[in-house]
Amino acid sequence: MNLLMGIDIGTSSAKVMLLDAEKGVLGVEKREYEVSVPQSGYAEQEPELWWRAVQDCIGRLRQRYGSLFSYIGGIGLSGQMHGLALTDKCGRPLRPAILWLDQRAEAECEELKSIIPRELLHKGIRNRIFPGFTLTSLLWVKRREPEIFAGTGYVLQPKDYIRYKLTGLIGSEVTDASATLLFDVVKRDWARQMIDLCGFPHDIFPECHESGEIQGNVSSACAAATGLPISARVIYGMGDQQAQSIGNGVFEEGTFICNIGTGGQVSAFSREPVYDRKLRTQTFCHGIDRAYSVYGAILNAGMSLKWLKDNILEEKDFMTLSRMADQIPAGSDGLVFLPYLTGERTPHMNPEARGMFYGLQLAHTKKHMARAVMEGVTFALRDCMEILTEMGIRGDSVISSGGGASSPVWLQMQADILNREVRVCNVAEQACLGACMLAGASTGQFADLREAAERFVTYGEKRYLPDGDRVETYERIYRIYQELYRRNGDVWAV
Length: 494
Fold this sequence. Notes:
This protein is of the alpha/beta class. It is built from 17 helices and 23 strands. The protein has helices at about 45-65, 105-115, 120-125, 135-145, 145-150, 160-165, 175, 190-200, 220-225, 240-245, 300-315, 320-325, 365-390, 410-420, 430-440, 450-455, 470-490, and strands spanning about 5-10, 15-20, 25-30, 45, 70-80, 85, 95-100, 155, 170-175, 185, 190, 210, 215, 235, 240, 255-260, 265-270, 280-285, 290-300, 335-340, 355-360, 395-400, 420-425. The model has no long low-confidence stretch (mean pLDDT about 95).
């Protein structure tokens, strides 16, 4: 028997999957946690919070499958991207990690625009400087918390910290490193010129490897704490978007992945480091074949629905909102929502953008609000897809993933607004599955990822097809949605 473990460090929860390399998924455990918001615009999490959540998930799997743990041969990792986890030279966290949706570093962004040559961004970085990325958060720490910066031994991303807890070894890999803005995505190595321009010491950035390389084995300390065997080999792992791509079976060009998690992304596999000349999208290294992942990202996808659920409607769960939305026609009877609750990335790259409801009337109810929020998020994802299409990236169909893929209402909405066929993988936790698959390929339990995909990546029988009448309705509402941003830009800047 050959078993694999996949660990995914999300923004809202940690998930751990146990996969039998022959039979498929044995079990998945999940532990939720909160994003800390110590003040407006901030978003943080304690690195040890992630580790405690992972330990809890492993512990519950061990209770159910403990007799099989000795057969775990490989462990893969996936995680939320852009986060800044600072440790000392002994791997101890120095402060809470600053997350991807944090907006505190606007002043640092403006400073960087004046010192970073534009040609450097286009030649190798291929991404826009924006709050919430590792670069801008690290510069904020350097300026505002100099004693923390002075004590920094290593700059890690969230899943890199968990890999350190597993192995006792420090390291980085190309997918997460390329999402820091301190990495040359073309050369697939740290951008030394960028690091120098920012005044950062080089030695705080760990040696960078390809995602599927094996870093080492589970340490004796981790084995004692978790029950994992010291014989299990741990790969470097990858960012959650690249892991989802593998878990969805997307190894070639021609398919879009639409992910609705806390944030949202429309991504595509690319053999070349293509990028948007206006720097409205992201181009990062992929975890396989020295390829690339190109995508547009929005900051508040599922987060918008969570905001509505918790703060406005005070409902218990997301599926209640989905059922409410199903009772309202396409277009929400004229109610339009802009999901810019913490600014926006693609396509506006504007941290000052703000959310809004437009078109409220006395006849509108909470059911309308639920549907309008889901539609607004999907309009934002369409913005992403349209730019990718402008770049020449083709995709005739969409694979939907994340929490949004659990709602039939939202799946049909994606088909109608994106005007493409939408499918869903049968395994819900695609990032965990992708981490397992890459670990299996790296440790020789699969000949390659395609063999793994043939075994484990299947799609539901239901295919969501665009409905002509709803497509026409959404075309009209989408133009209003776009115009609302254009007409309110000056107001948000005040």
